[in-house]
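Per reviewer request, we include the raw input and output of the structure prediction for the construct analysed in the revised manuscript.
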Amino acid sequence: MSVAFGTTTARFGGLCVGIAAALVVGVVPVAAQQAAMTFFVTSAGPGKGGDLGGLAGADRHCQSIAEAAGAGGKTWHAYLSTQAAGGKSAVNARDRIGKGPWQNAKGVVIAKDIAELHGTNNLTKQTALSEKGEVINGRGDTPNRHDILTGSQPDGTAFTGSEDRTCSNWTSSTKGAAMLGHADRTGLDDSAPAKSWNSSHPSRGPDGGCSQADLKTTGGDGLLYCFAVN
């Protein structure tokens, strides 16, 4: 009996070791991919609508989320433009995200450089993943979260003129408007804006256009595109 018990114990122990090894093998590649990640859509926004604390606050949000996902060894910036105001020049989103290439949490390249990102890129609902490697809810999902804050024109440059497209340069959670992109490249029709990842339509709503509730009314949640600049 003692021999049989010992044999059973040994087999059970070996099984446990085998399972543990399999789990490690399964986890390590995922962690390695996320460490190599250079692009993601935030799984959550700061929660204050269009008030991100300016560009600096948005960048901190990207950096914090990247660190939590195991990709904090890079410098992360939010894909956001600002408009000329108060004697300060406009800032173009395309000028603050590095040179590429950029890949998601699964290792899929979404664009090799700035030109491709703003041309024929590989951004779809299946590739515009969160830092966790998860698909962001899009049109037809509940809730729809496909509206991403960008404040940008299709070529990644800032808007000119007096109309607010950046929620007062990302400091307002009441009045104003922010230009939004569709992470799933899907809208109400087949027009270019409806399919645009970075310049689909402005925010709007009863609170003034820039509150968290306003962003949710058109299918958003105050999410950001984050890019590793190095």
